[in-house]
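Lab notebook, page 48
Experiment: co-folding of the full assembly
Goal: obtain a model of how the components sit together before planning crosslinking
Operator: M.T.
Materials (sequences as entered):
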Amino acid sequence: MTLEEEISAPQRGRGLLRAIFRSRNLTIGLFVLLLAIGMAVVSEFWTPYPPNALRIRDKLQGPSLAHWFGTDHFGRDVFSMIMAGARNSLEVALTAVAVGIGIGVPLGALAAARGGWIDGFVMRLTDLAFAFPALLTAVIVTAIFGPSAVNAMIAIGIFNIPVFARVTRGAAMGLWKRDYVLAARCAGLGDAAITWRHILPNVNHVLIVQATIQFALAVVAEAGLSYVGLGAQPPQASWGKMLSDSQTYIYSAAHLAIFPGLAITITVLGLNLLGDGLRDLLDPRVRRQR
Amino acid sequence: MSAPLLELDGLTVALGTGGVELLSGLSLVLERGERLGLVGESGSGKSLTALAIMGLLPEQMRVSGGLRFAGDDLPALPEERMRRLRGRRIAMIFQEPMTALNPVMSIGAQIAEGRRLHLGESRAEAEAVARRLLDRVGLPGPRFDLGLYPHQLSGGQRQRVMIAMAAACGPDLLIADEPTTALDVTVQAQILDLLDEIVEETGAALLLITHDLGVVSETADRIAVMYAGRIVETGATEEVFARMAHPYSQGLFAASPYGLDLRRAPGGPRPRLKAIPGMVPDPARRPAHCVFAERCGFVQPDCLRISPRLAPLDSGGARWPHLAACLHPRAGGLAP
Amino acid sequence: MRTAAPLLEVRDLVREYPLPRPSLFAPRPVLRAVQGVSLTLPAGSSLGIVGESGCGKSTLARCVMGLERPQEGQVLIDGEDIYALSRAGLRRARVKFQAVFQDPYGSLDPRHDVRRILLEPLASLQPETSRAERESRILEALEAVGLPSAAAGRYPHEFSGGQRQRIAIARALITRPALIVADEPVSALDVSIQAQALNLMMDLQERLGLSYLFISHDLGVVRAITDRVAVMQAGKIVEEGPTQEVFAHPRHAYTRRLIGSAPKPFSGRRRRARAAQEAPA
Amino acid sequence: MTSYVLGRLFALLLTTLAASLIVFLLMQILPGDPAAVMLGVNAQPETLAALRTKLGLDQPLWTRYLDWIGGFPFGDFGVSHTYSTPISQLLAPRIMVTLPLALLSMAISVGVALPVGVYAASRRGKPGDFLSMGAAQIGVAIPNFWLGLLLILFFALHLRWLPASGFAGWEDGLWRGLRSLILPALALGLPLAAILARVTRSAVIEALGEDFIRTARAKGLTSRAALWRHATPNALIPVATIVGMQFSFLLAGTIIIENVFNLPGVGRLIFQSIAQRDLVTVQSLVTLLAACVIFVNFLVDLAYGWLDPRLAAGGGR
Amino acid sequence: MQRIFASSLAGAILLASAGGAFAKDTLTAGEVLEPPGLDPTANAASAIRRVTYANLYEGLVRVAEDGSVRPALAESWAWSPEDLAYTFKLREGVKFHDGAPFDCSVVKFSYERAVAPESVNAQKGLFEPIESTECPDPLTAVVKLKRVAPNFLFGMGWGDAVMISPASAETNKTNPVGTGPFRFKRWVQGDRVELERNPEYWGEPARLSAVTFKFISDPSAAAAAVLSGEVDYFGQFEAAELLDRLRADPNLHVEVGSTTGKVMMSLNNARAPFSDVRVRRALAHAIDRPSFVEAVASGYGLPIGAHQTPAEPGYVDLSETYPYDPDKARALLDEAGVKPGTRFSIVLPPPAYARRGGEVIAAYLAEVGLQVELVPMEFAQWLDQVFARTDYDATIIAHTEARDLDVYARDFYYYNYVSPEYKELYQKYAGTVDDEARLELLGELQRKLAEDEPNVYLYALPKISVWNKNLQGVWRNLPLPVNDLTKVHWAE
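Observation: model returned without errors.
Model output:
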């Protein structure tokens, strides 16, 4: 009755593609992510209207053929702003996740490899970091260094560090007990080499899934910070800022509150679906349960 | 006499309707007081048989063929009636006492649960019985309090709790699925003894599932050897061990270190075990002919055409006929 | 036989583990997993260690594999105390001894193909080997364990449990070691597959002159493959001797109980009651 | 058990101290001299210096730290620069908003998530599972401040059932106060409920796959009884972890939600204090908040002991 | 207190049941900013005066809704040009809320405190002309001036010039004690200030029994509070875009009146390129003021061209001095040697006109090739960095004080505008008594400012206020940034 604890490598080539399309979650998630990236990239070259151009005479128009998502209180085209905002969201989120991975993963791997007081120290450090609610960290960081998209990235990134440290450590701890690690030791490999060759490749599916989750959280966090005025600053378009701007027009122009919120929700939803899909694809435990 | 306690008559379990057959045409009869050992390697379908009897197969599996308990056709029984049989008249002991017990529930509550459920006893009544049961299985109070949790017990002690749980409602049939596999040999011996005694005292029937020929030979009156979802040989334990008519039974025995003759000429090569070549076929790729033919050392051309049925080897008259599903059963015995 | 030092010698080995404190200020209790074990394994022979779970046999195995530094005592391989060696020295010494582990699923990195798995000890311990030599050594090792050369390009999950254990053995063989420490190498396998693996190990021993330190809880398996056997109980060796001798005439009460408890075919039901009476729990 | 609790308490204290030190040091980098801010535009240098002395801003760093943190055990968190009021007095009415809000949100989160999660797990793969998890998937994705806006739009402006913003206070009766917390608590609690429901579902599904469920079924329990009596208690262990983490998330969430709904709570006080460069208030509040999170994590650890007897005896996970 | 609680509860119940039948005598007033303290003589924040003026504290004189100076604690006064002295006849029997008596010694104390070197009074300049304050008898105060100061009396009507009792001067910040018709009840920091009727008021008692100032910084929350009836009166409503919605509510009265608030883009005249008048003019040409008002304040607001609003005397319409003309702006910039792509930053304090206005201006300036970095800043930091240390390029701010043309004549003010001509002109104006001539000079001052354009003047802040239809006696216009609730009452 031994359960086969096998982790099959993802199917290569066409097999992988087929696996992706077989999963509804992955398909939708990838589609949304690509859409967001596409909007962000295209907005660099082209938007229906310049996202920062004021056309005050055309302000607060509802959705129409000329302005798909209507115009805001300055007469800017909401659709163009959402396209441009995609870039800001993705940029901030990507950097924040990169910061988290770049620092958190080595920390977690170190803790798992060395154990003992190093592990204790790293874990207390993450405990400490977790004691500060993520948004609070961000509020303080931006209070000190001033509100800007870059500081939002740093602030959200700081919160991501303990998350990745924990996840890496947790996954790696289990792997260090595996016999193949003992075998690698018998082959004379040191902790660093084992971490690099055996541990990280085997935790990367966990990390990929976590990264998509954190990416989604970072999109929300960025929107939240921009919403309270601590994130992206004008003229940089940002979904969160659009929402906070919309708040006073909520009686007269509800579309201003609807579209940026939808953009955030759909992006986050897509990322979460992507994460779920990747988990199903990469994590054999879940796959077996199905 | 009325209907037998448990009767399998061509029991077949398939994945989905008309899908891959996991169990094919199992036939068995078991009466109260009898001990039947079901032996086979992993993937042979022994545990599935137990779950089929308990009516706890995964949803996507379909049962066909006869499966009767005290005359009731189990697959046709409504869930509510089936539920009332489970734990009350058919009880089961699982392999892994670590995970088969609920870690967050005290052992007393877990033992008492069945009695409260089936016999409508109050908590106090059921716990009084649980106390007696624990004493009986060798976990005397106050050292072994009802309030203990599974993690506070050793593996052998947990398995004793499992036995107490299974015996709680005085079942007619006790199914033990690899009850000692996870245990050390010395503990295994004690648990098997305990099981033996419980069956002796209650007169229940025992269906003992194991992969260990030694365990069945010491515990069971009768033996059924399974291979690839089929019973390939069955009969009284002594009979089967005396003859081992099916090449698989023989191979299984010869491959185990018990079968090894350690004598060797000084400096000569060490004697080898008689390994069965190849692997158990995947359920989806079982051949239409004899399932063992590909690995059989005595394979004949007709083995690759015909799927043999269980057939009696002797003239009959014995209480438990010796049957084998082989076109060319072996004749010679196997001396220890 | 050489007159030099035995291939493996373990002297008065002690390995303890600190346990969590029972209360905040209480001293840390210590689990003495191995309490002063001494062993000798001449080249070309096999020594079995039997005992029940928790007796310390796996800890002993890990100490011998150079994976866990003992608090006291020495592990000498070819007369060299491996724990007295420098990092590089230990690395050089590792060529001489390799390991096979119990779990055929956990002992192979699922992300590496067989070639990479086999290459790892070779590249790490014998970096001087040429590319061509490495290739030929891989083929040699695969052939030795009876796997086709095509196996090199495949991943562990594509193999059955028995085949995986062959790969693990091939990995242990690739540096052409003199000693293989095998910790329960066949306990996870079905009987028929287990027999294949044991036979393979016997073949290899005869062909390559290997020595085995063979750890198992399964008396039958130990009996089948070892020349000498040591019985461990609670961190100590309670009996040691030629395998046949120990099994035929166990001297220590624990050994007798162990052998008496092991189920045997043909024994019939009644034997069990006697065995139980002999040694009440 | 006691030594386990004591050990955890000790660790808790250390973590809190470390947190306070970090906050204190961070606050020193914050630009803007609080004395100058207090005195306003036309302050004379002498008055400024006098005020700095009065506030202790001329003391060395560590003295200021010790002075400040030394008051904590006695409920003395310093005096707000902007309001010239003891921070504990500022805090008291704010806590009466934020704490009920947090508890209400938590209650919504747990109250919605547990039944939905268990239900979905029991209906695994069926339409009920699909629907509830689809809703949860969307709930996870909706940012709470946007949900807040939508709730205002619908329940306050369209239906006019509940106040759109502001806090009525507890003086005029429980219901009036509660009314103004319902929408914010929903905005805060529902996305958390969605996360928790997903966690609960997978925890229950995992527990349902355990051997002891088969044991329970073999004992004759209905699948429903096995679900509730055996699977769910086991599933609560991972759920408790998430609940603990959500609490910290929740405290942060109040900062935004209190802004959306214009509630006079702790979160908005922090926000305002930062805006007004009221450093002592910021550092005290942030430290208290961190201590709160640490304490809740401690409670979760204790809850483990209660939920999982395996931990009660041995200690440590 | 118990009684008040009961009556307001009863009021609420009645409100809920009868809908229109009012037995209500309490008021909840909404305010955007919470005051940092409640002592108007110690801090510049206008939020303090918006709560305290006329309600809690009173001065010798006060300013009425039409901007005229009226008696308050002084029944009457006389100006004697020869010895440059005002003689105030003080009211008898006036008591502070704590029971302390009001007499000339209080006047002397208050004025001397305000001019003292260590005074932190935000409008120290108002008191600067005072030579001495003397008390011939307890009910007569003689204030001697150093020179003719036509604005002096008006200034004594400001919130900064209220009478402070020596006994409570130090604690007014948290526990204000004045002579007004309302007295302080409590302050729930961050949320509200509660006042109650002063039963021992010397004059006509307040009609309302209690007033609560509730601080709601978010405009949509403010709108929601007004719509739900949670707030009865909102004196200075910031979000003009919500007015249509408020107007649609039959229970509400929306009033767009005038204030003396001047929204402008203040420039640091000491910094290049703003030291060049051509650049300042170019900026003025680059911004389309009517559109700016439309975008920022939904059209509520009158474009202005100098530091003066129609609500102040002597206003001259100079709003067309620099009509919107991007080409001209570009030409001027070119002339001044400012290259396209030149960057500078605009500091934005929190109010919507600044935050939103910044975005609009950035867009306009981008049209003429200027790259603007917007730097949002909290007000405390703004006061420190911009106002006190003048470390900024440009900022957007509303000057709410009335008749404050003097700031350009000061030696130091945060614009760093230095113009001997203007200074001379202002001194001439300050020394002129004749009304006709004063108005003429006021016009000249404004024209001078429009010519030099030290700041880019944008629009006059309207007083947008909203109140319940049944509320009466509310100020429609705002000569001072205050909320005088002394005459407010509910319709019978």
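Interpretation: The mean pLDDT of chain C is 87.
Next step: discuss with group before ordering constructs.
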